[in-house]
Amino acid sequence: MWKVIVLIPCYNEEKRLPFDKFKAFVEEHSNYSLLFVNDGSKDNTLDILNSFANEHAAIEVLNLYKNSGKAEAVRQGMLHAIKANPDFVALYDADMATPAEDLHAMIELAEKQSYNMVIGSRILRLGGAIDRTFVRGIMGRIFASAASRVLQGLTVYDTQCGAKVFHTPVAQIIFAQPFITNWIFDVELFARLIKQYGMQNMYTKVYEFPLTAWRDVHGSKLKKMDFIRQIFDMHKIKKHYKLNTYNEK
Questions:
Q1: Among the listed residues 143, 164, 153, the one whose alpha carbon sits nearest the alpha carbon of residue 199
Q2: 222 lies in a domain?
Q3: Which of 36, 117, 125, 206 has the fewest CB atoms below 10 angstroms from its CB?
Q4: Structural domain total, the chain
């Protein structure tokens, strides 16, 4: 059976971490382990994480003494996880906004279909339970349209969902170098995949998984002004990775 390490970045999360759910997840899936990355939290997050890890062999804590921002915290966590030679590494939000069952389904799909990356997608649809505020929903659609233009017209619905699965050899490549942006490093991941594997493979080796449920959780670090800055960061990504505005499939 394949081995999976699930990376959970944390910054001042002492009031949002659903430890009972994380515990149930690793107990149900013996081939999974959790890596919590504490990004220089100023509250009691590190103490809580260490206490939790001491009780469960499948849980590890990587402590970054200085706050580096989410992009670098995720990158450092990925580089650390890769050393253990898992088959897949997954990125997951500390608040478990994405159901654990969906994450497991994404990993199974990545294994069966040999995808380089499977990303959760918060698509509003019949049969789904996607709970987003009206404002965040509108901002998300504007952001997705801008991201698509930057990424050579790639038709990706939701680059920013916190649930992502990577085949480890691919993660070794796309997380090797520091990101040039912080909050929209997700868009950079797509840019790096395009540059490394070509646009055609984006339609055969990357899959958007429609989540069965997702909910806005109080305490999100993302603010409205961050959204405005993200739009400007799009230009940085396009220029740095030398992406054309359009590209045929």
A1: 153
A2: yes
A3: 125
A4: 1
Residue at 28 is within a domain: yes
pLDDT band at 138 (very low <50, low <70, confident <90, very high): confident
Rounded Cα gap, residues 90 and 168, in angstroms: 9
Residue 168 identity: T
Q: What is the pLDDT of residue 35?
A: 98
Q: What is the CATH number of the domain that holds 163?
A: 3.90.550.10
245 in any annotated domain:
no
- Mean pLDDT, all residues of the chain: 90
Q: For a pLDDT cut of 70, what percent of the chain falls above it?
A: 94
pLDDT at 249 over 70: no
- Domain extent, residue 200, equals 4-240
In-domain check, residue 176: yes
Q: Residue 41: its pLDDT value, please?
A: 97
